[in-house]
Amino acid sequence: MQKHTDALWPNLSQGERGRALIARALMAEPQLLLLDEPATGLDLAAREQLLTALDELRERYPSLASILVTHHLEEIPTTTTHAVLIRDGRVIAQGHVADVLTTEHISECFDHPIEITRQRGRWSRRRGSPSRSGSRRSRCTLDRMARGDHPQRTPFYGVVLIVVAMAAAMIVNRTAPVWVQVPVYVLAVLAAMAGFVMTFRDLS
After folding, report:
1. How much of the chain is in helix, strand and coil states, percent to nearest 5?
2. Closest C-alpha among 85, 25, 94, 72 to residue 53
């Protein structure tokens, strides 16, 4: 990102914006990095650049833990060590990534026959042979974070928003100057309020 030091945000591509946000998050020297579908909206080249950056990040900061949420096997970095598959709020499989991302587990999670292959550390999929699972569509969360996409609402997103807001406020309180703390505190309060609203709405 050094060549974009003087670039304006509107002039950055979607992929460059994603890398810039990751770089900004690393300024606080966090112990955990949360990535919620970071490849959304990226073209093929930008997606590959992002995944390469995440793999390099793992090599450069081996003590930094990361949680990445995605619905696409192709978006899983090669440095991923563990994974969780969740459908309708139920854990289908969890553990070492090679044991979790299998044809059997993925087919069960998406309720559709899907054949899984892995080459040079990257995962890919193709339509498998028809089975009793049928062709009913569903969405399943891949990788290392519990997230269920299903018709029934859950308070998960609201709780996550509250936790992230509190964590951001705690981080800037310890490391950031006052001129950074004030806007972050304001955003944290607004995010926490939105999280409470979402939580109560989904519980009602």
Report:
1. 50, 20, 35
2. 25
Report angle CA 139, 84, 137 to the nearest 5 degrees.
Answer: 15
Q: How many CB atoms lie within 10 A of CB 131?
A: 9
> What is the spatial distance between Cα 84 and Cα 86, in angstroms, rounded to a whole number?
6
Distance CA 174, CA 31 (A): 14
Q: Is the dihedral of CA 17, 58, 51, 191 positive or negative?
A: negative
**pLDDT tens string 2-35:** 676 778 878 787 777 877 888 888 888 888 888 8
As a residue count, the chain comes to 204
Grouping H, G, I as helix, E, B as strand and the rest as coil, residue 118 is strand
Strands (E), the chain: 32-36, 65-70, 82-87, 90-96, 114-119, 122-127, 142-143
**Residue whose C-alpha is closest to residue 118's, from 76, 69, 61:** 76
Count of CB atoms within 10 A of residue 132's CB? 5
CA 8, chain centre distance (Å): 26
Whether 83 has a pLDDT exceeding 90, the answer reads yes
